User: Fold this.
Amino acid sequence: MFDSFEHLIDAVSSPVTIFTFATAVFILFVTFPRQLTSKWVSLGTLFLVLAFFGIGLTDEHFRKIVSTPDNVPIVGLMFIFGYFTWFAMKKAVENDRRIEKGEPTVEQLETNDKVLVFPYLIFIEFVIALAYGAMLVIWSLWLKAPLEEPANPTVSPNPSKAPWYFLGLQEMLVYFDPWIAGVLLPTFIIIGLCAIPYIDRDPANSGFYCYKARRAVIIAYLFGFWILWILLIIMGTFLRGPNWNFFGPFEVWNVHKVVPLVNVNLSEIVFIKWLGVGLPKQWFIREWPGFAVLFLYFAIPPAVLARTALKDVYKKLEPTRYLVLVILLLVMIALPIKMYLRWAFNLKYLVAIPEFFFNI
Amino acid sequence: MNRRKFLSWFGLAWVSFGAATGGALSIVLRFLFPNVVFEPPTSFKAGLPDDYEVGGVDERWKEKFGVWMVRTAEGIYALSTICTHLGCTPNWLTNENKFKCPCHGSGFYKTGINFEGPAPRPLERYRIGLTEDGQILIDKSKKFQQEKGEWNNPESFLVC
Assistant:
């Protein structure tokens, strides 16, 4: 019934279109939060998403992927995270409106007093934990744990998927060397999250939802969370099939799908394609273009931004904290940049030194 | 109990406490090293060269030793079945004529050269030679890496 719709979705589905589409939706959301969290737009969006799922469920393959015990939590996650983001933004928009008018925020109307963590917060958390525990018991009775046969080192299941919370990392591993995607970037994520309270020490506008006053911070966080983590988990869960090939949501996972793909390193583009000479033998001569690009990427934006867009931030944070902030942001943005470079130019590595396993 | 006697008992207590803790720790350390290691032998006989079809990738030793035998018109080489990206075991896809890793999509030509996906370097080859009775002998303790130019080494390739 919906065959042509499904074929159309499959035809336009690819990592680059989905990533770009999600980023566009994200930019719309953070640019027009008031309009997009209004009643009719929210209900309309919910209806569209549910309609997509409803149509999808008529498709056998889609139904199978979505209802696999491994994947059910991810379906829930999409709706729950979507709801909470919408909920926080809705409250923030309302408070922004009140602040503009000079009225107290919703939270301030409720009470201006501080309450103790114990018993007020702990009690709520305890009740939630009980309810959550009960839910997990019912869930585990209803959906069986997807256990497989004992591991065999000579046979990797096809596709081999990490646990769902690591699928973002696994997706990153497609674009990076293991030591970057598996060690360096996770370390940066953890250190970066720990660093937030030290970088943003401004107590203003805390204690209630708000958006306008903390726009840049909220956008940066939501981008990292939604686009660079949750979206990658969703793609890894539903759209990556055998041989880690990309499949549309209604496309049958064909083990023999062939995706013509030849990846090249930056050094090969520079020396073979542009200069027309062979690859130099010595790695430090061969890889200087990549090192130059990296050096420029991490040297120029901090210096330029300190004098232009982030002038006030630079003044407020002082050099050290400013540098930490900008480096963290640059590393974060490096992920989508590298992904787009792969999609656009089949670029494998900027710096490729297989001689001692150093690839960027 | 006088002060001197108390202190000497105290010292004894500390010494025995230290000894007990040290003993327990050393047992824990010992526990980290297994009594028996089940590792297949690093070298094995892989039959006669004529057992292998020219132009084919032979998977008969994949499960037991982690080796693909590839025979070309020039000879035979033994490829490691460990992906150079993150160590999964790729699959040989006969129709597509390539090795494809299910974990992150790295692809390798029949020669072992990496051409797609994130794998940074080609699959490794193992030392290959002949025994006195004419059988192929694979020695996994010695490996040859293309990016180091080691595939030119005569031991990485069996001419036949």
Notes: Chain A has 15 helices and two strands. Strands of chain A lie at 352-353, 358-359. Residues 311-345 of chain A form the longest helix (35 residues).
